[in-house]
Amino acid sequence: MASTNRLEGRTILMSGGSRGIGLAIAVAAAREGANIALLAKTDVPDPRLPGTIHTAASEIEAAGGRALAIVGDVRNEESVENAVAKTVERFGGIDIAVNNASAINLAKTTELPMKRFDLMMSIEHRGTFLLASKALPYLVNGTNPHILTLSPPLNMSPRWLGAHPGYTLAKYGMSLLALCWAEEYREAGVASNCLWPESLIATAAVQNLLGGDEAIKKSRTPQIMADAAVEVLVQPSHAVTGNTFIDADVLRAAGITDLASYGGTGELEYDLFVDPPA
């Protein structure tokens, strides 16, 4: 999508963002003129995964934005407070908080180690709550302020309730928090929405956990989530809040009906928690 500087001068604080969907959103927002502060643990390269917080910052700046890489842990209160303070010091405030950091484990109940259960809950629940709670005092004074949480619609289909309860609880908890903030801060004018992919997205998580090369062939690129995120974040915060958006629906509502450029060489595979049309 063409850049129109629709986020000019606005400051985003994002958890994670070193790679994948988070990085794509950060780069797309940078093309629209945004300042991007990233809070992530990826200080040094991991041979299993591409990208660090520093390479992400370089990509953001190459796209025309201003970047601030903050090494820290979204689960740690001091880390989040430090990230907020550094973001405000560098850019003068916070207009958008993006809850991107997440962990995934699709094991069944009796097969999910408590260590992995605790990791998902601490990142998805504690980390999401921490980032928003520390950013909100600045968001209420921000320009068209938004909280955007990368989590799914609350699909109560038995198919999903029985599939992987630990991960379902982790992601639905993020969505519930987002919907709670939409009501808590409605009068203050801070929007809070969720955004989730219609299809699988070609990321390392899909490659490593959801089917390898065959799953990647059935996936769209992270750019579809990035373009949809920008479309949400430019909406008036007082009018567009309390939604669990699907990326393709957001783009279609914006008049973008041809999604072929986002990839998928064959039949697309719907993402977790998304039911295909009847």
How many whole angstroms does the radius of gyration measure? 17 Å
**Residues in β-strands, percent:** 5-15%
Work out the number of β strands.
7
Q: CA-to-CA gap between the ends?
A: 30 Å
The outline comes out as globular
Per CATH, the architecture is 3-Layer(aba) Sandwich
Structural domain tally: 1
CATH class: Alpha Beta
**Taking all residues together, what is the mean pLDDT?**
94
Structural class of the secondary structure composition? alpha/beta
Strand order of the largest sheet: 3-2-1-4-5-6-7
The number of helices is 10
Helix content: 40-55%
pLDDT below 50 for ≥5 consecutive residues: which ranges? none
What do we call the CATH topology?
Rossmann fold
Report the CATH superfamily: NAD(P)-binding Rossmann-like Domain
H-E string: EHEHEHEHEHHEHHHEH
Biggest sheet character: 7 strands, parallel
How are the secondary structure elements laid out?
Elements: E1 11-15, H1 20-31, E2 35-40, H2 53-62, E3 66-71, H3 77-91, E4 96-99, H4 114-139, E5 146-149, H5 158-161, H6 165-184, E6 191-196, H7 204-209, H8 212-217, H9 223-233, E7 244-246, H10 247-253
Parallel strand pairs: 1-2, 1-4, 2-3, 4-5, 5-6, 6-7
Brief description of this entry?
The protein has about 280 residues and is an alpha/beta fold.
Plain-language structure description:
The longest helix is centred in the middle third of the chain and has 26 residues, at 114-139. The protein is an alpha/beta fold and 278 residues long. α1 (20-31) packs parallel to α2, α3 (77-91) runs parallel beside α4 (114-139) and α9 packs across α10 (247-253). The model has no long low-confidence stretch (mean pLDDT 94). The chain has a single domain (11-204, 222-257), classed as 3-Layer(aba) Sandwich (Rossmann fold), CATH 3.40.50.720. It is built from ten helices and seven strands. Strands 3-2-1-4-5-6-7 form a seven-stranded parallel beta sheet, with helices on both faces.
